[in-house]
Amino acid sequence: MPNDKIMTIPQELLILGAAVKTGIVEALRTNTTYTALAEKLNLNPRAVWVVVEALAALGYVVKEGETVSLSAQARDMLYNQESPDFLGFSFMHRYNLIRSWVHLPEVLVNGQPVPRDQDPENTRYFMEGMGRGARNAAPAIADFLLGKTAGGARVLDIGGGPLIYGAAFAAKGAQVTVLDLPPVVELMGERAEKAGITMISGDFNRGLPAGPFDLAFLGNICHIFGEAENAELFRKVGQALRSGGEIAVIDTVRGTKSSAAVFGVNMLVNTVNGGTWTFEQYNAWLGTAGFTHVTLDEVADRQVIRAVKP
Ligand SMILES: C[S@@+](CC[C@H](N)C(=O)[O-])C[C@H]1O[C@@H](n2cnc3c(N)ncnc32)[C@H](O)[C@@H]1O
User: Fold this and answer.
1) Measured from the CA of 123, which atom of ligand 1 is nearest?
2) Are residues 187 and 299 in the same domain?
3) Is 103 considered catalytic here?
4) Which end of the chain is more exposed for a tag (fewer CB within 10 A), N or C?
5) Alpha-carbon distances, residue 42 vs 27, 56, 109 (angstroms)
6) Are 177 and 260 contained in the same domain?
7) Which of 65, 88, 111 represents a domain boundary (last residue)?
C-alpha cells in the first residue's frame, strides 16, 4: 500500500554503517581527535567532522574539547557481550543489504546479482545478523521438531553456520552436525566446539555428510539457489536420512504471504538464481526425492515444511 514510510531514510544505520566500514568506530574505542581520525584512516577531514558530530548527536560518541571517543552506551551495544544492550555488529548485515538493494535498477536491466563487497568482515556481520534473526524462534522450532524426547537424535543442520538453531537442538540433547562453507566454519568452529556441535566445512551443492541422520534441518537455505539445486539438495538429503527420518525446511513460502514476494527481491539482488518458492514447488522437489507426509506449519512466526523419508 502506498504510505509515508517510503519517505523514510534509515539515516542512523547509514551513518553508523559508514563509520564501521571506514574504521571510525574501531578507532573511536580509544580517545582521539577529528584531525587524528582523518589522518589515521586517510579520510576527508570535513566529512569526518560532519559524521562524528552526527554520531555524537545520536549518542554514539562523547566529546571533551577536541577529544572524541565512543560513548559508554555505544561500547555496550557494540562490544560488551555481557550487557543487556549488546547488539554486536548484526546491523551491518542490514547495512550491506541496503548497499545491494540500491542497485535494483541495474539488476532489472542485466538480471545479474550485485557484485559482492569482498570485505572479509562481511562473514561475521552475516553470521551476527542471521543469529540475531533466529534467536527468538530457535527454542520453539527445536521443541516443535524434536518434541520432548530429543535425547541422542542425530541432527544435520545444513547451512547452520550461525549455530543458533544448532545450539537449540543440542540443548534438547540432540547430537548436532552443522555443515557450512569454509570461511564460516573458520569463523564459528571454536564456538561450535564449545557448544558440543560438530562443524563440517563443505558445499551442500556438492555433497552432504554421510549420516544416517534422524533429522535434516534446512534453515533459510532454499531461497539461496534455484529449482534445480533445491531438487538435487532434497535428493541428497533423502540419502543422508535414516528410513523414517525427517526433513524440515524453514523458509518464506511464496503465495502464502506478501513478504515472500518482497523477500524474492532480496534474493534477486543478492544471488544468481535464488528466490522464494511456492508450497507446490517444495512438494514437487520432496515428492521426486521420495519424501511423503508433507506438511506446512507456522511456528514462532516461521514457516516450517516437514516431510518423512519412508
Ligand atoms: C541465510 S543463512 C541461514 C542460516 C541459518 N540456517 C538460519 O536459518 O538462521 C544461509 C547459511 O547457509 C550457508 N551456505 C550458503 N551456501 C552454502 C553452500 N553452498 N554450502 C554450505 N553452506 C552454505 C551460509 O554460509 C549461511 O550460513
Assistant:
1) 25
2) yes
3) no
4) N
5) 12, 21, 36
6) yes
7) 88
